[in-house]
Amino acid sequence: MDNEEDASCYMVEEKAFEYDYDEEFDWENMTLAQCNCSHPLHKFLEVCVSKCVVAPNTLLFGLTEEELFEAALPALMYLIVFLVGTVGNAMVIFVVNRFKRMRNVTNVFLASLSTADLCLIWFCVPIMFVKYMSHTWFMGRFACYSVHYIQQFTCFCSVLTMTMISFERYLAIAYPMRNMWLSSIGRAKKVILLIWLVSAILAIPTAIRIDYETNISLSGHRVH
Questions:
Q1: Which of 217, 220, 219, 222 is nearest to 8 (CA)?
Q2: Which residues fall within 8 angstroms of residue 24, CB to CB, at 6 or more apart?
Q3: Half-sphere exposure of 207 (CA within 13 A, CB side)
Q4: Which H, E and C letters describe the chain, residue by residue?
Q5: Dist. CA 178–CA 35, nearest whole Å
Q6: Cβ–Cβ under 8 Å, residues 61 and 133
Q7: Which residues share a beta bridge with 9?
Q8: I want to staple 34 with a disulfide (CB 3.0 to 4.6 A). Which of 17, 30, 63, 168 is the partner?
Q9: pLDDT single digits (tens) 23-54
Q10: Could you name the CATH architecture of 14-224?
Q11: CB–CB of 55/34 below 8 Å?
Q12: Domain-wise residue ranges, the chain
C-alpha cells in the first residue's frame, strides 16, 4: 500500500532532473503559498512538490483563515462549472432520449458530446478542486492515473465528435443527395462508438507519462 500522506501526482517528461537549488532557501519551512502548485516555484521545478512543512495554524484543507478566504472565489467557480455543466449536459441527454422527434443525427452526436463532458465534470472537476485546495495529492495511485487519463479521453471525444458534427453538416449542405451513409441514427451511433474507442486508445500515452511519487526530497540536488 502506498504512503498517500506525502504523495504527489504530476505529468513530466523525465522522472528526474537536475536542479541547482538556492542554498539560502528554507526548503523545510515553505509557506502555504509556496506549497501551492500554482506558485512560480513549481513552474521552475517543472514538478509540483507537495511534501511541505507548514504552520500549524490551519483550517480546512490545511489553509489558514486568510488563505481560505482567498480560495473562496476559485471554489465558487468550481461549483458553478460543476452545477451548470451537470444540469446543461444532463438536459441535452434527457431531451434526445426522451423525445423521439429530437433524435436526429446531429442531436445524437450532441448527446455523445454531453456524455463526454459529464464524465469530465463528475470525475475530474471534484478531484482537481480537492488537489487545488489541499496543495497535495492524497487520493492514491489509481485516481492519479485515472483523472489525467479521463481528461485526455474526454478531450479527444469532444474534439472528434465536434469534427464529425461539422463534417456531417457540411455533407448535408454541400451534398444533400450523397449524405445517405450518415443519415441514419444507426450509422451515427456506430461512428460515435468508433470515436469513443479511438479516443480511449489515443489517451493511453497520457497514463504512461504520469508520475506518482510518495516521497519527495526537498533538501538535495535531485527531485525524484
A1: 217
A2: none
A3: 14
A4: CCCCCCEEEEECCCCCEECCCCCCCCHHHCCHHHHCCCCHHHHHHCCCCCCCCCCCCCCHHHCCHHHHHHCHHHHHHHHHHHHHHHHHHHHHHHHHHHCHHHCCHHHHHHHHHHHHHHHHHHHHHHHHHHHHHHCCECCHHHHHHHHHHHHHHHHHHHHHHHHHHHHHHHHHHHCHHHHHHHCCHHHHHHHHHHHHHHHHHHCHHHHHHEEEECCCCCCCCEEC
A5: 59
A6: yes
A7: 212
A8: 30
A9: 445 555 555 555 555 554 444 444 444 444 44
A10: Up-down Bundle (1.20)
A11: no
A12: 14-224
CA distance 155 to 113: 10
Distance of alpha carbon 160 from alpha carbon 195, whole angstroms: 7
| pLDDT tens per residue, range 78-109 | 889 899 999 999 999 999 999 888 888 889 99
